[in-house]
User: Fold this.
Amino acid sequence: MNEGEKKVVRKMIGIYCRSKHDSSGVLCKTCAELEQYALSRLENCPFGENKPTCNSCSIHCYRSDMKQKIKEIMRFSGSKMLFIHPIDTIRHFHHERKRNNNYKAALKQQK
Ligand SMILES: [Zn+2]
Assistant:
């Protein structure tokens, strides 16, 4: 589930670990743990392929320490992604916007 998301998360953690922890190719222990955690959250997301971005989601499923870490990684790697993987990144954000709009529309209908 959410294969596209997983790819992006993996890339972001990879970029972060390489620049911050001097790892090459293989993630350090902390980042490897975080990656496992993030991937399992995506796998278990109740919204499945229609998941909104985690920022706009009404379920905050991350443990707070993991949330802090992933936030820092997103901030750090987000801008770099655009240079390293421009096509993937643009496609990713385009999909996210679309899903967020769907999600908001669905929320409105529930009221
Ligand atoms: Zn690391």
